Amino acid sequence: MTVTVRFAPSPTGFIHIGNIRPALFNWLFSLKTGGTFILRFDDTDLERSKAEYAKAIENDLAWLGVHPHRIDRQSERFALYDKAADVLREAGLLYPCYETADELERRRSRARALGRPPVYDRAALKLTDEEKARFEGEGRKPHWRFLLPNHDGDPFITRRTDVSWTDMCRGDQTIDLASLSDPVLIREDGTYLYTLPSIVDDIDMGITHVIRGEDHVANTGVQVAIFKALGAQPPVFAHHNLLTTRDGEGLSKRKGALSIGSLRDAGFEPMAIASLAVLTGSSQAVEPMATMEALQKKFDLSSISKSSAKFDPEDLNSLNAKLVHEMEFCQVQERLISMGVNVAEPFWLTVRGNCGKVSDARTYWQAVHGPILVETADEDREFLAAAARLLPEGEITSETWGVWTGLLKAETGRKGKALFMPLRKALTGLEHGPDMKDMLPLIGRQNIQARLP
């Protein structure tokens, strides 16, 4: 069997680190199995779906290293959904309902008050042609429900009907169709809800595995029934846990702060984001993978925990820093140049260990090339004057710092922070940073002398 998977976002906003998780799971699964990855835009909501959001999603995926083998848009496939709806109608499995939202809510409230589950009672199946015509005459438009196969011929006498599947993340799962309401597939205005277009596309595109969030587990029983009603074999399902903050907050509420675009603009590395999104909530250690190939080797659906995948956005900082610390000069040279930091390899090798992001190199570029504006404390003026006088002659090398501070210690009696900090601040404008023995040759004699009194 050739594996085919899909990621089906709605282009009604920007994707964030939470909903990039299923995109990465599907992409990595396709890489691992030599399969096909389809990007399928769920853009049937023509009012809210925007071309600019779809383009942004494509760009975000590409930046992360996800390259779809095929891109489809549901807005171009309505004829297929209409045909499937007709098939279900002709089979007596899609029926019109005329209740308003208020009427349905009153029925649910009444059922709860009587201690019954708020399951739709299929009252619309009892409507006569005359009653339907009267509703139509009042201006009511029907919504259409799928008749679940949870009965033995009389839809008003339901029986327990288990739909079971072996979930690649959650193991054996069972949903009782008798506990569910017949799902609405078509709204009053004739537009489709997510369910039918998704199933029709999965059938038409030959989707073999549906990998998605655990919030869809309850929907799976219904969807399996619709697959079978359309004469198709359901795909294999995998429902992974959802990313939340450590407080359990859903990430959809934090789209702005954690959107892929905003994280990119903030200077985070794509593989730091991908590593966090994939490995959090699994039995694997959350560590930065330098490439998608390395992450693919570590990725395993069976390692996904059944408990929630809580993470702290601050974790992204440490993952990012670890990646940056290992980056070779050739990986960052063009980016540094684009930032106005035109440096040679020794500079990057000196500063990368202190960079949480590649853009932090600009701080150390400024420290090397200046100008440096530092207000010297009165008690350090004499000390810095001695430093200027005791600066060793000759070429500034990595040995110079040790020799220089040794001379200063012997003359002034200073040691530790009192010895090193005034020099570091005067020479770099910073209180912390790379080892000064390595920074000193980059700063050079001319700048050293210019920055000391």
From TrEMBL:
<dbReference type="GO" id="GO:0008270">
    <property type="term" value="F:zinc ion binding"/>
</dbReference>
<dbReference type="InterPro" id="IPR033910">
    <property type="entry name" value="GluRS_core"/>
</dbReference>
<dbReference type="InterPro" id="IPR001412">
    <property type="entry name" value="aa-tRNA-synth_I_CS"/>
</dbReference>
<dbReference type="InterPro" id="IPR049940">
    <property type="entry name" value="GluQ/Sye"/>
</dbReference>
<dbReference type="InterPro" id="IPR020751">
    <property type="entry name" value="aa-tRNA-synth_I_codon-bd_sub2"/>
</dbReference>
<dbReference type="InterPro" id="IPR020058">
    <property type="entry name" value="Glu/Gln-tRNA-synth_Ib_cat-dom"/>
</dbReference>
<dbReference type="GO" id="GO:0004818">
    <property type="term" value="F:glutamate-tRNA ligase activity"/>
</dbReference>
<feature type="short sequence motif" description="'KMSKS' region">
    <location>
        <begin position="250"/>
        <end position="254"/>
    </location>
</feature>
<comment type="function">
    <text>Catalyzes the attachment of glutamate to tRNA(Glu) in a two-step reaction: glutamate is first activated by ATP to form Glu-AMP and then transferred to the acceptor end of tRNA(Glu).</text>
</comment>
<dbReference type="GO" id="GO:0005737">
    <property type="term" value="C:cytoplasm"/>
</dbReference>
<dbReference type="InterPro" id="IPR004527">
    <property type="entry name" value="Glu-tRNA-ligase_bac/mito"/>
</dbReference>
<dbReference type="InterPro" id="IPR014729">
    <property type="entry name" value="Rossmann-like_a/b/a_fold"/>
</dbReference>
<comment type="subunit">
    <text>Monomer.</text>
</comment>
<feature type="domain" description="Aminoacyl-tRNA synthetase class I anticodon-binding">
    <location>
        <begin position="377"/>
        <end position="452"/>
    </location>
</feature>
<dbReference type="InterPro" id="IPR000924">
    <property type="entry name" value="Glu/Gln-tRNA-synth"/>
</dbReference>
<feature type="domain" description="Glutamyl/glutaminyl-tRNA synthetase class Ib catalytic">
    <location>
        <begin position="3"/>
        <end position="317"/>
    </location>
</feature>
<dbReference type="InterPro" id="IPR008925">
    <property type="entry name" value="aa_tRNA-synth_I_cd-bd_sf"/>
</dbReference>
<dbReference type="GO" id="GO:0006424">
    <property type="term" value="P:glutamyl-tRNA aminoacylation"/>
</dbReference>
<dbReference type="GO" id="GO:0000049">
    <property type="term" value="F:tRNA binding"/>
</dbReference>
<keyword id="KW-0030">Aminoacyl-tRNA synthetase</keyword>
<dbReference type="Pfam" id="PF19269">
    <property type="entry name" value="Anticodon_2"/>
</dbReference>
<comment type="similarity">
    <text>Belongs to the class-I aminoacyl-tRNA synthetase family. Glutamate--tRNA ligase type 1 subfamily.</text>
</comment>
<dbReference type="GO" id="GO:0005524">
    <property type="term" value="F:ATP binding"/>
</dbReference>
<feature type="short sequence motif" description="'HIGH' region">
    <location>
        <begin position="9"/>
        <end position="19"/>
    </location>
</feature>
<keyword id="KW-0648">Protein biosynthesis</keyword>
<keyword id="KW-0436">Ligase</keyword>
<dbReference type="Pfam" id="PF00749">
    <property type="entry name" value="tRNA-synt_1c"/>
</dbReference>
<keyword id="KW-0067">ATP-binding</keyword>
<dbReference type="InterPro" id="IPR045462">
    <property type="entry name" value="aa-tRNA-synth_I_cd-bd"/>
</dbReference>
<keyword id="KW-0963">Cytoplasm</keyword>
<protein>
    <recommendedName>
        <fullName>Glutamate--tRNA ligase</fullName>
        <ecNumber>6.1.1.17</ecNumber>
    </recommendedName>
</protein>
<keyword id="KW-0547">Nucleotide-binding</keyword>
<feature type="binding site">
    <location>
        <position position="253"/>
    </location>
    <ligand>
        <name>ATP</name>
    </ligand>
</feature>
